[in-house]
Structure formats: C-alpha cells, structure tokens
Amino acid sequence: MTGASGGALLVVGDVVTDVVARHRGPLAVGTDTAASVRRLPGGAGANVACWAAHEGCGDVRLLGRVGTDASAWHERELAACGVRPLLVVDPAAPTGTVICLVDTADSAERTFLTDSGASLRIGPDDWSDALLDGVGRLHLSGYLLFSEPSRTLVSVALSAARARGVPVSLDPASTGFLTALGVDRFLGLVEGVDVLLPSRDEACLLTGLPDAADAAAKLSRHVPLVIVKQGAQGALVARSGAVRARVAAVTASPRDSTGAGDAFTGAFLAALLAGAEPREAAAAGCRAGARAVERVGGRPPRAACRGPADG
C-alpha cells in the first residue's frame, strides 16, 4: 500500500486545550507539588494535522468541534502551522481540556486527565461528502469512537471515503477508553479502515497478545496495513498476517512524551501522500516522534510552521 502522490489530507478529530504540568517524582498527595505549568493547543486529531503540515504535506484540513471559549485561538494556532481549520463552534459545550501530568523523573512519561467537552459532540450533521473533494487520504482520530454522535460520524465518513476510493487511517487513541468501549466493538467499528496505527499497548490490548510483533501480525488480518508505534523501540509494519518490517527508533532526550504518537502519525501520513512505501513512511514517523518528545506539548515548533493556510 503506497501513498498516491498528491491530494490533501483530511483529518477528523479532537481539538483540545492542553494544560501541561511537568513535575519531578511522585505527586505529593494532600499538599503542594512544584511544577512548570503551560497552556498549549492540543488534541490528537489537531496534533496529527499540524505534524503532517510540518512534514511537508501541502494541503492539510482539520474537521473538529470546539466551544466558543477558545475557538478563535485554536483557529489561529492551526492556521499558523499550515492547517486549514474547519472548526464547528459548539454553542453549548466548552472546548475540550486535557490536563497532562508529565513526570520529568520518569522518561517524561505522562498521565492524562481528560474532559472531552465539545470535541466528542461532533456528529454526522457536521459532515459533508464535499469535505472529501481533492482529498487523497482521510485520517480519523480514535477518540471519535468514544461517544455515540462521533461514532455515527465515523460510519458516515468511512462510507463516503469508500465510495470515492479514498484510503482511511485511524489511531486507536487510548487504552483506557478502548477498555471501556470493548475490543470486539472497536474492531467492528473500524471495519473498512485501510491503515491502523496503534501504540504497542493498544495493539496488545486489541489482540490479547503480550508480544507487539504477534499483536501487529494478528491485527493485520483485520486491517490491510498495521503500523505499531513502540516509542524507543521503533515501529513495526505488518500486512497480511505477518510483520514485514521493523523500523529502528531515533535517539532522543525526552522532555515530554505528549503527542509523540501524533507526530509519528502525521509524518507517516505525509510521507504516504508523497508516495513513500510504508517502511519509509514509518521511518519518517520515528524521526518526527523523536523530535516531538524533546519539546513540551504535542505540536511541532512554531518557528518551523509554514504560516497561515491559504483560503
């Protein structure tokens, strides 16, 4: 499965405000823990879109839902990274917020406290088949599977993409939410997806297998192309029930792992759209993931963003 050169990337997914608190060592329960706290734009879908633009995809579009409280800020932040924001403003719900607790003494591992807000209120009424005009690939954030309106949107978008021959990718997003949703239900909902991009933990959860390679191989019997993101262990490329490639990680000095998987996915999809083979695209994803963990937040550096998107 090679990315056809040309065409836009349409991402449908979450746009949230990240509150990143970087602390060192265990939290002091019942009292204060010193931390560095920053408010940053985030959301798995939005991060993927920004990294795809950063990695050279010339036309990246993002469909998401935000509240009136932060809609203008998020539009500016997306446009500044070369993403065309297609944001629906929800009059009743605030923009989603994620508190990211990052332990700087533990390889920058993070824990999320998630209030999805408006992001999971996106639904089929926010979709139009015209969104696929000029699109070469559609990417769906896995967070869309965790509410009824956005699950319906996934079904509608998948059907529209299949009708047009547009390949679809999906990132499972969260082991916690996957457990609540159920593995069998998840696999049923992603029927028709062309590329699945789970983390190692997500792949093992979805298959019940402890080994990432075995899990990747099993998943590739359900989805044509499976890319398992393994962080410091690189990535696995699986098709037709077998691992076809093992891609080495790029050495990095972690500061914050928030958004590293999104960076991988954005770079991977940009490379596919440019015509790369999956192994080459996975290598691009590993490079982007390494850069992402060396900075705070889930977005690429602003200085490297291309400026406001056209039209």
UniProtKB/TrEMBL annotation:
<dbReference type="InterPro" id="IPR029056">
    <property type="entry name" value="Ribokinase-like"/>
</dbReference>
<dbReference type="InterPro" id="IPR002173">
    <property type="entry name" value="Carboh/pur_kinase_PfkB_CS"/>
</dbReference>
<protein>
    <submittedName>
        <fullName>Carbohydrate kinase family protein</fullName>
        <ecNumber>2.7.1.-</ecNumber>
    </submittedName>
</protein>
<keyword id="KW-0808">Transferase</keyword>
<dbReference type="Pfam" id="PF00294">
    <property type="entry name" value="PfkB"/>
</dbReference>
<dbReference type="InterPro" id="IPR002139">
    <property type="entry name" value="Ribo/fructo_kinase"/>
</dbReference>
<keyword id="KW-0418">Kinase</keyword>
<dbReference type="InterPro" id="IPR011611">
    <property type="entry name" value="PfkB_dom"/>
</dbReference>
<feature type="domain" description="Carbohydrate kinase PfkB">
    <location>
        <begin position="9"/>
        <end position="300"/>
    </location>
</feature>
<dbReference type="GO" id="GO:0016301">
    <property type="term" value="F:kinase activity"/>
</dbReference>
<comment type="similarity">
    <text>Belongs to the carbohydrate kinase PfkB family.</text>
</comment>
